[in-house]
Amino acid sequence: MSHLPEPVRPPTAAGVVQLPDGTHVYGDHLPAGFGGPQVVHQHIHQAPPDRTVQRIALGSGVGAGAVAAGVYFGPLLVAALTAIAANLAMLAFLAVGLGWGVHTVVKAVGGPDGATAAKNIAKARKRR
Fold it and tell me: Rounded to an integer, what distance in angstroms lies between the CA atom of residue 45 and that of residue 96?
């Protein structure tokens, strides 16, 4: 009994207890129904994890492997879609920048014919 340190907090039962098989355990780690009433510490403020989708899937006959695959591949799918969206946003930004650059260059390089054409287009838009 001397090889076990004394617990820091006082246990619910008496200190270190010797079980019938000869092993020593702390009194607060005894199995239920072994020497006195069992004290249950229930943390009501902590919500259990939501397993509704898994329960519905398992109840409808889907195997545990399919549920595990959903749990594993669900976040991967979200990550892949996010990466695709980021790539498309970058390509859109690049297209806008290149379009603006081409427009600016064409406008700067264009001679009087380009300016006349731009004025005619502007007048045609106003007439509508």
Answer: 52
For residues 53 and 64, the answer to whether their CB atoms sit within 8 Å is no
Q: What is the DSSP letter of 27?
A: G
Query: Residue-wise pLDDT tens for the chain (128 aa)?
Result: 567 666 555 444 456 777 778 777 776 665 655 655 667 776 666 556 666 766 676 777 777 777 788 778 888 899 999 999 999 999 999 999 999 998 888 778 877 777 788 788 888 888 76
User: CA torsion, points 71, 77, 82, 85, in degrees to nearest 10?
Assistant: -160
pTM (2 d.p.): 0.39
Tokens encoding 117: 């054409």
Give the whole-angstrom CA distance, residue 65 versus residue 58. 10
Tell me how far apart the terminal alpha carbons of the chain are, to the nearest angstrom: 100
Copy the structure tokens of residue 118: 């731009």
